[in-house]
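Below: protein 1.
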Amino acid sequence: MRVTHLSLTDFRNYAQVDVPFLPGPNLVVGRNGQGKTNLIEALGFLSTLGSHRVSTTGAMIRAGQDAAIIRARLEYNGRDLLTEVQINRSGLNRAQVNRSVIKTRELPRYFSSVLFAPEDLALVRGDPSGRRRFLDQLLVLRTPRISAVLADYDRVLKQRNTLLKSARAAGVRPNALGTLDIWDERLVELGSEIIDERAELVRQLGEPLRVAYQSVAGEDHGPALIASLSILGADEDSGVDAGAIRVSTGSTTATGSTTGTREFFRAALASLRPKELERGLTLAGPHRDDLVFMLNALPAKGYASHGESWSFALALKLASAELLRRDSTSGDPVVILDDVFAELDQSRRRRLADAVAGFEQVIITAAVLEDVPEALAAHTVHIRAGAVVDG
């Protein structure tokens, strides 16, 4: 899989731009603020339906305009595809493939990419929500149907929270709220599937993560992933990881049996009901889980150096690309590296260049041409003030 052409209309600082891409490495060069990251943000949106920079799509629409349009020509399974999405300031977004209307949520099945940007350091050092989002986006790329499960879970969660808040306001006793039992079952059904899918994904990431970390850092610091589950007692608010479990056990479910996750989920909701009614909030489920990153048998958050944290986050994305490559029937995912090389020393730059060299297409952005190894600069696009210019 690769991008052959990207066209943007009223996207960020681009009124209109067309950018060709080739197989192998593609380098986009421009000073900070010229629009190079906007290009890869647009590509990232096609595969994740989100931005790595902002939480709302309105910021991606050029000032004064009502909509932005992303068009990408792809080479997919030996055939050419034209994918398009219109991001609207108001109303629903619209998508097409080869001029045929599709549901916007179906776009990721046509384009797979893995993006690493400086913001991804927050995967190691930031809040659990970022790590959950990372897992869920990778799940959707690997298994698009999970998108509907995640959406249904969010919908049930909101309805359940609304009921809890209403019950709190009315002073309802914990054992006198039969309606909540109905929502509990739906929450358990959907949430258990998400928990188990995440657990299997984390298990599969283990070995590619170890290989990728060593290839980037040049050393083996024992990188590992541990799922911290609220249904087993982990508390996001207090930082207590009582429910942390290692997912490298080989089990395909979070709790070790096909029925175990649902049983633990039901038990957690039952025990937490008084506290949930007191707070008007659902306190157990995949929306409150975390993923603990380990280096040298210690949590990376709080113990890893800046360089180790950077290497871990980058290795996590390379491991994701490797998993997608193994799963795919349409070729490698497009690997996108946004302003990465400026943060690395010469040895890490060479190792990273070697690590991505085998992918079908790599798109790199940099403010300074000399920061990027020569092997990755064969096809270079220069960006200035929202336009493609001659070098």
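Below: protein 2.
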Amino acid sequence: MKKKTLTPLLAPVLAALIAGCTTVGPDHQRPAFDLPADYRAADGWKPATPADHLPRGEWWRAYGDPVLDDLIARTDRANQTLKAALGTYRQARAAAAQARAGFLPEVGLSATAQRSRSAAIQGRSANQSNTTQLGLDASWEADLWGRIGRQVEAAGGDLDASAADLASVRLSLHAELVQNYFQLRVTDTQRALYARTVAAYEKALELARNRIAAGVATRGDEASALAQLRAAQAQAVDLELTRSQLANAIAVLVGEPASSFALPPADALAGVPAVPVGLPSELLERRPDIAAAERRVAAANARIGVAQAAWFPSLTLNASTGYAGNAFAQWFSASNLVWSFGLSAAQAVWDGGRRDAQIEAARAAHEVTVADYRQTVLIALQEVEDNLTALRLLDDEAALRAQALAAARDAEALALNRYRAGTASYTEVITAQTTALDNERTLMQLRGRQFSASALLNKAVGGGWDGRLSP
């Protein structure tokens, strides 16, 4: 008898499920963007194609500095910004799992035990009774219009975007560390330069004093030499401050207190890795910020379908079974078995335009993400162009600065020799020494700019260009 009663109820449900579900809302398409045929700053580039799945190598190893390699590893282990990004990713992963759970039924177990007493009425004695019940309840919403599917799609897009954000944070931290590290190493070379300069100026001061003692120079030469020496010593002190601040910045990146962090000085400076000719443009598509922006477009697109699904009725299947009786011992007898099965459908008839407003808001949010995606691509193109140009022009400038430094050193040597011979004033010596020092320090600072441009170019193309390196 029960089977006959249940069959008419199941028939329309099974028919609806067999017919398949309809997914409302637009399907995601990557926003169109016309990339240039090549980059002005380099030959051999080709139009970019989506390739954010390509591996990102350990690009910093190209600098050949084991101290830097160790600092990168420490950053990956202990940087607090990276840990916060990892926590955000785990939240997105949990949200995606929560959305996927919407495809499955919800099942609950309940148990109750109750003792009650009725009042005595018209001479009847009070009655006491016990009631016990054990039940299993289940409900499942059929995703007839794809609302749950679109929610899962949106959560998946958010998860992918969060994963790309995590990669973007890691890449940015690595690039920042490389820049700070080599700025510190450039500062070390400048400190060594000023140590040599101070020693040379001390000898020049001694020379001036000896010439004064010999009666062939004036006190003005000594004053000029002393002023030049003190200025160089003051600049050396300023470099100590610069190095201390850079070391403190690196300490924060590696997740250590600045007071306990130490980085021994090094006078030698590694070379800047050369950019290979014909660097493939698809490396740009590995940029995690571009991937994150594109996946947020996909998530926003899916939310349009979620909003549109609100126009259609929801269908929920409910079922429950269990045992009920006056005592626990009677629970599992056939006569105490209870069950129920049913369908419920809900449909809003009028909501004052709320659903239309939600759909419009979802479409507007999608337009925002599309604009953000295109802006991210434009910024990426700019960064690649800027740093390719910087590396090329700084290399040309470095060659000219090296020639200027060689000429300034020759002029300095000639001025000192002429001063010793009494054919030049000490003002000429100071001018030549200042010119040589300025050229050498400028050349060192230029090396720092080259390292920064190199690190930023690695970041701009998504993390290096040598696919042979392990990610």
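Residues 147-213 form the longest helix (67 residues).
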